Amino acid sequence: MDLCTCFRSFLATCLLLVSAFLTHAESIDFNRDVRPILSDRCFQCHGPDGGNRKAGLRLDTREGALKLTDSGLAAIAPEDPEQSEIIARISSDDADELMPPPESKISLPLLKKKLLRSGLKKVPLMTNTGHSVH
Ligand code: HEC
Fold first, then answer.
1. Are the C-beta atoms of 38 and 60 separated by less than 8 Å?
2. Can you give the pLDDT at residue 24?
3. Residue 70 buriedness (CB in 10 A; 0-12 / 13-18 / 19+)
4. Residue 30 reports pLDDT greater than 50
5. Residue 40, C-beta contacts closer than 8 angstroms, at least 6 positions apart
6. 73 Cβ partners below 8 Å, 6+ apart?
7. How far, in Å, is the centroid of ligand 1 from the Cα of 26?
8. In terms of Cα–Cα distance, which of 49, 39, 30 is closest to 134?
9. Is residue 106 within 6 Å of ligand 1 at its C-beta?
10. Which residue among 6, 31, 81, 122 is least crowded, i.e. fewest CB within 10 A of its CB?
11. How confident is the model over 33-54, as pLDDT tens digits?
């Protein structure tokens, strides 16, 4: 194998890896990847338990997640997910704004934040499973 062929096969391998990565990034599934994070880290205060629900925000149903919150903000803005209040809250530097609230001791690691961010784009496809939390 001469140097040129060798380099070419190296390039081909790189391309393959990159496309495999991109395909994976594309295949984020709301119910499989995002919902468990919300369920784990958010439902305690924004879930099916009406008595403990904060800010009138319910993230366990499609309607709840897409309707405007008590303060008139879009928790999840399906047309423009980057504008979702959820994104602002999980990324905030302000302890009063940050979700989950620091005093709850519920953490949201960076990797999960990233997943949430990409996954919100899939919310219009979210299936409504009512009260079931899984
Ligand atoms: C321990 C309880 C608790 C947990 C857990 C929690 N929140 Fe909250 N959340 C609150 C409270 C209390 C408020 C209202 C006060 C405020 O706006 O900061 C709130 C407000 C919000 C708001 C703004 C609602 C509005 O009216 O504008 C969003 C969006 C939000 N939470 C998203 C989340 C997300 C996403 C998670 C999970 C990653 C989460 N919260 C986890 C207690 C919680």
1. yes
2. 57
3. exposed
4. yes
5. none
6. 85
7. 28
8. 39
9. yes
10. 6
11. 888 999 999 999 999 999 999 9
